[in-house]
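Worked example 2:
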Amino acid sequence: MLHPQRSLSELPKMSAASQVERAVLEEEFNWLLKEEVHAVLKQLQEILKEASRRFSMPTPGLESQLKQENFILGSSTMDQVKGVLTLQGEALTQADINLKVAKSSQVLHFQFRDDKQWKLQQIQDARNHVNQALLLLSSRDETYQFKTGAEVNKLMDAVMLQLTRARNRLTTPASLTLPELATSGLMKMFTPPMPGDVMVNFYINLSKLCLTVYQLHVLPPNTTKNFKPTGSSVLHNPGAMFELNNNRFEVSHVHKVECVVPWLSDTLVFFTISLQLCQQLKDKISVFSSFWNYRPF
């Protein structure tokens, strides 16, 4: 391997073999910048366009053309909660929930009002990050000539940042406090209205659409129970407490059901493949940069 501190001025002093080696490296690196980088960028664009298509938004006036998918959420080990959710792109357009109340075995039934739908912010944000990555890639078309490896790395870093953020939005649901859940707009979407001792939450976790139902009971004003409000969490446990409108509540039961959304599974695979392609290209650049230092890497 060549000494990394040698400069171009030392070339005449170098052996013929070293000069040939340097010339070959120079030629291979120029080919990498001119040909292979653009081949990788094209491949990335094709993969991310496919990912973006999974998130496809309806054209104004043509909402009905976006596929509606029904998902049945339940559990083989419990029957307290069952739900049928209708997903259309990033929006839950209908939710039909049956809740078997503990102790009484009474079944409560709720569904979205006809004029309501709930946007899943995680899907919306992930789609926006994918489109930002596509914008970055399209800013360097096939006629663009990369001059340095540093320039390629800068583009790859920017694309990887958007893809990591997109993946994180699907893998990391928002943490909410119980008062935030209780006052969420989601609670106002159902008919009949949700009773004051029931709360629900929808979120994405990896490729799963999740429904959580909380049953509450009011703590008496003169209770001797040690009251300690619970902080924010994706999933709260029985015994969690909070205060709202001068009333104190405790979570008595928590029911979580979920269902895999196949196109979200596909999308996460696309993110992984794209991130690997970006890293592989960066690794190739670093192999060349380790051989000489007269280029500004």
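The chain has five helices and ten strands. Confidence is low (pLDDT under 50) at residues 1-6.
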